[in-house]
Amino acid sequence: MSFSQVFDPGVLALPLFDDAHRTLADEIGQWCADRAEAWANLDTTDPATTARALLAELGRSGWLRHLDPDQPDSDVRSLCLRRQALAYHEDLADFSYSIQELTAAAITRHGTDRQRRRHLPGLAAGTSAGALALSEPGAGSDLAAVVLEATPDGDGFVLNGTKTWIAQGDIADVCVVLARTGDGPGPLGLTAFLVDCGTPGFKAEPIGAIAPRSWAELTFTDVRVGSDAVLGERGQGLVVALDVLERARATVAAAAIGFARRGFRLALDHARTRKAYGGRLTDLQLVRSSLAGMDVKLSAASLLTARAAWAMDAGLDHAKHSSTAKLYATEAAGEIVDSAVQIFGAAGLVSGSATERLYRQIRSLRIYEGSSEVIEMTIADAL
Fold it and tell me: Lowest mean pLDDT: which of 141-145, 218-222, 358-362, 374-378?
């Protein structure tokens, strides 16, 4: 599989990237391509077991080594390149990688040295799985509405409540949990905790999704944690959560580009070989117009994402850029995959086909790390 199928060489050649990024893109693209045949036969009927295996594979191959506190950290542009390649080749590989990154980012940016030393080496090796437990049945996008309680008790806290739609929740060894400690009204009363998932009273129940994913509802029944489980400052839990989500938005955009480029390549290859009306689909003006539109959207999404990631790495104000990239790339990816299905016709709807899987896989990205509607409000606030 050629480099240009996964990445846009023209975008990577821009000064927004350097030679190290271009080398990384080549390496991660080749690594994924070498596993394409094996990944095509993954057992997705048990996404939890598959996610565990993929995490171990990512860890063994060194793609998570930067999470270790003794290793150099990764810049955001590199995270985006990894996610784009993984998403292009295998949804569950990108899914597992991204949740590991989210969990580690919360610990790296807000944890104590002791917390980092305790949890990050396992996450980096892929031998420990992480999860970010924010959402609740009554608190999705509005995290200030979180009601899971963390009641002070002696030198620690007791957690009671439910988290739901938690990625990797059913395989997690450690969870970053947003809970209400009552230090103030609304968002001021929230604190982030690091919870070992083997703690008595913790229960994970898998949830099915339209695309096979390791997903779960978490129940906390008198889960006792020490004061050293507090991540960041008490009462600053929403700050921790929003910081991690905001930084992740550019990487979600990158994953969307990976999915969309796969859909575009499938549609282009099909249109070039599919005979129709005495010629091929690519001879039809409407099909050519659709393919051109897909390519334009991919270019725009790639440039917006590169700008956002570069701004973060440069230490510049990036919130609006990240939100813009995430909004545009995820919405455009949905349109591109939909167009790919249309070009395939009935063949694109066959259960288990690449286009049918992409159609289900891409939908969640318009909700993760801030729904499109919430992102639009964020952008409007920055105007």
Answer: 141-145
Same domain assignment for residues 107 and 143? no
Q: Cα-Cα-Cα-Cα dihedral of 367, 304, 76, 321, to 10°?
A: -70
Is 72 found in the same domain as 11?
Answer: yes
Give the pLDDT of residue 2. 54
pLDDT at 87: 97
248-264: pLDDT as tens digits: 999 999 999 999 999 99
Statement to judge: residues 117 and 8 lie in one domain: yes
Q: How many domains does the chain have?
A: 3
Cα 87 → chain centroid: 9
Sign of CA dihedral 87, 88, 91, 96: negative
Question: What is the spatial distance between Cα 201 and Cα 203, in angstroms, rounded to a whole number?
Answer: 6
Given this model, what pLDDT does residue 367 score? 93
For the stretch 196-215, what's the b/e string if a residue is b when 16 or more beta carbons lie within 10 angstroms of its beta carbon?
A: ebeeeebebebeebebbbbb
Q: Could you tell me the pTM of the whole model? A: 0.95
Candidate list 90, 369, 373, 376, residue with the active-site label: 369
Whether 226 and 300 share a structural domain: no
Domain boundary among 235, 254, 277: 235
Q: Is 356 a catalytic residue?
A: no
Residue 282 sits in a domain whose CATH number is: 1.20.140.10
Residue 45: pLDDT over 90: no
Q: For 152-180, what is each residue's pLDDT tens digit?
A: 999 999 999 999 999 999 999 999 999 99
Given a contact cutoff of 8 angstroms between Cβ atoms, the answer to whether 235 and 189 are in contact is yes
